[in-house]
Amino acid sequence: MNKFVDVILDVVFKHHAGRRIVFSSFDPDICSMLRLKQSVYPVLYLTQAVCPRYIPYADPRTKSIQICTEFAVSAGLLGIDVLSDAFVEDMSLLTYAKDAGLVVFVWGEGCNDKEIIQKFKDHKVDGIIYDRLDYYKTGDKESIFKIEEKRKRQLLERIGSISLKLETNDSGTDSP
């Protein structure tokens, strides 16, 4: 596992190209290693907890949202990334994780439903991973990635105009 994590980190650090990255893994030991080996990118513990849809993992740290939450806190992870089915059935589990100070993302087939997506948004889930952003998007909120790109563009335009003013001033013409 050590070599595996080192290879992943090496590739990400060389080729991230300024992209926003969040690491997550179903393996709690990999999450711990990612957290201990770097401090640039946040790490979320990816879990299905216990769900009838999937074969459960043998690791006891996967057995419930409460245990996943306690593991993430003890390992110093940013948060958990949980199969949506667990929260749809019991939203108090979401409150448990949020009260522990964790960021909470949800994923899975349940996130491909506009009503469930809105329910998660109403309960202040930090991230919702779903297919077909264009189809399932609720409300008028713009994607964080589009907002970030727009801000970068505005900053570059502002820097460009400052640079242009400085060049004009350096040449001895027109001082403000």
Within the largest sheet, what's the order of strands?
A: 1-2-3-4-5
Q: What CATH architecture of the largest domain do you see?
A: Alpha-Beta Barrel
Low-confidence runs of at least 5 consecutive residues: none
Helix-strand category: alpha/beta
- CATH level-4 homologous superfamily of the largest domain: Phosphatidylinositol (PI) phosphodiesterase
Helix-strand string: HEHEHEHHEHEHH
Strand content: 5-15%
The percent of residues in helical segments reads 40-55%
Radius of gyration: 21 Å
Key descriptive features of the protein:
176 residues; alpha/beta; TIM Barrel; 2 domains; five-stranded parallel β-sheet; 8 helices; 5 strands; globular
Short description:
The chain has helices at 2-15, 28-37, 65-75, 84-89, 92-99, 114-122, 133-136, 144-170; strands at residues 23-25, 43-47, 79-83, 103-107, 127-128. With 176 residues, it is α/β, with parallel strands linked by helices.
Which helices and strands, and how do they pair?
Elements: H1 2-15, E1 23-25, H2 28-37, E2 43-47, H3 65-75, E3 79-83, H4 84-89, H5 92-99, E4 103-107, H6 114-122, E5 127-128, H7 133-136, H8 144-170
Parallel strand pairs: 1-2, 2-3, 3-4, 4-5
